[in-house]
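Help! Submission page says 'invalid entity' but I think these are all valid:
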Amino acid sequence: MTLHINGHCDEMPMQELKALILKHGGQYDHYFSKSTTTHMVASNLTPPKKHEVRHFKVATPRWVLDSIAQGKLLPWHRYSALTMVPLVSDQTLLVPTVHGATSSGSIPPPGHALPQPPPSTPARPPAPARPPAPAPTPRPAAKDAKDPEFLQQYYQHSRLHFLSTWKAELQAMMRPIHDELQRKAQERAANAPPPPFKVIMHVDMDCYFVSVAFRSRPDLVDKPVGVAHAEKMNADGSSEIASCNYVARRFGVRNGMFTDQARKLCSQLFLLPYDFAAYRTTTAQLYAALRDFATGLHDLSCDEAYIDESPHITDPSDILPLAHAIRPKFAPERDAPRRLGHHVARKLAGMKVVTAADLVNVSEPKLQAELGAKLGETLYGYGRGIDEGDFGHKPRQTVSAEVNYGIRFDAQDQAHEFMRQLTREVAQRLHSVGAKAAHMTLKIMKRATDADPRMHLGHGICDTFSKSQTFARATNQADALATVACTRLVYPGDKVEKDGRTLFDFVRPTKGKKEKKGNGDEVGCGDRTVGRREEPVPPPRSAPRVVEGARNGAPAAWIEGATSSTIAQVDKIMAQELALSVLNDLPPDIRRELI
DNA sequence: ATCCTCCCCTAC
DNA sequence: TAAGGTAGGGGAGGAT
Ligand SMILES: Nc1ccn([C@H]2C[C@H](O)[C@@H](COP(=O)(O)OP(=O)(O)OP(=O)(O)O)O2)c(=O)n1
Ligand SMILES: [Mg+2]
Ligand SMILES: [Mg+2]
């Protein structure tokens, strides 16, 4: 059973109550979750709050203390914290509990029952009533990017940030292993005939985040389950499902779907929380295991890798047995096809290409005309079993930090302060990989006029703008990056009188496209004014100019209002020594020009 | 031709 | 009570 404590309770500090619950075999939800919380514990609820939670099982802390003291689970309704509210008759409205029980007063199976004091640890006697705990006043959650704590909190909770940064860490971690495998491969090539077949296996963990969550919730393996942040219990909260298991997929639930939509498809869906630390250790285990099977290893993501098995294969019939050996539950029918993005898939469907086999029916020029030269050629090859994709690692070319959530600035200094935080982040990452950048790009997303105003903290429909600049010298200094971002790529416009709400003003505004995600085949871009070569970075130009730009014919020299997103990206990163040596190798006249 | 800048798209 | 990041491939169109 899983309890959530609402507000503070009169009997004892919340932390102590929580510790008691955990100690005696209960689970604890920091946030109430419709799908995992079985009971709520509350001392004093305001009438509106009572109304809000009237469909849930809400008991007083005394219920927990008495149950522990008596060594058995007492019926919660004797301790209901909702006595002022008439009991509802429609119990079917109750969300599933961890045990699937929907009737009130259900007693969980013994294995999960709250009172199970181990003989060695006598139950703590019920705490005597005390005065209310001193107001714990934890710092309120940072609401949006105006809050200086926002960035850190956001990163702690963003799964996409986790995926991306963990992938970069993985690649760094794998480099020595990769080098070693490469060395062995060269040795083999020198001493033995090349393998008759090139066999690359694609290893991908099933519903990764959910599978990790199952380790602590084995009771749910047969249920439809997703991993997502807790939703607001009341009404309209919804969060994105990072991963869902195959039971849930049978209902149509998908990774990346929002919980409100998912629940319409599958009302019994259970949602479990993230556990980023566990993903890390599990991924490390995965890669350690794969290294022992493979003669080549290409890390793709936290749950996925290519392994080169060519030397182990002398005949095609060896392939499946080997795959079975590597993964006992290997299921050929689940072998994922190459997935296509929305836009490409639509264009292909227009050519009557739905499966890979259909690709043989389309000529290469036709594919190239529809999809671009490169992708057309690549897909033409795929249709014929040709994949020239290389299996190597390239050094990283860019480092970037980007936030498109919680961006709600009212004034320019807020926006600039946030830019300073982002550039500081980029500088730190450069330092951590021992690199400097020779180029920087700033990207801004501006909320489109037709964006949905009810949007919570997401970015919604936006126009995007970007501007980049080459540095005279490569740098990894946070201050330098911040200066460039705030004064060279973007600067406070002259027309700040606009309610004091001018936020960013592109030195050279460009016309943006319609939206970030979604069907992006509107008009192409254009309207680029002259790009004259920028001066070397420090010192910044003293007199920035305002340039009129146009989007759909309207003057658009500044961006105003509740804006959206920011990215600070540095390009052409290089080892520190290299940056200097390249510079020193330049002919003196060019060098003087740069410095 | 090739490079550069700004933009789009994809994957996890 | 949510947490739409991040890196890379690549194209259009102008500059060189
Ligand atoms: N839109 C997405 C897609 C994936 N992920 C995370 C959660 C996934 O568990 C993990 C791995 O992604 P996969 O594409 O491999 O998806 P799963 O492993 O969840 O499912 P499958 O069994 O189809 O591989 O990345 C995410 O947060 N958001
Ligand atoms: Mg997977
Ligand atoms: Mg995967």
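Support: the input was valid. A stray whitespace character was the problem, and the output above is from the cleaned input. The domain at 2-79 of chain A is CATH 3.40.50.10190 (Rossmann fold).
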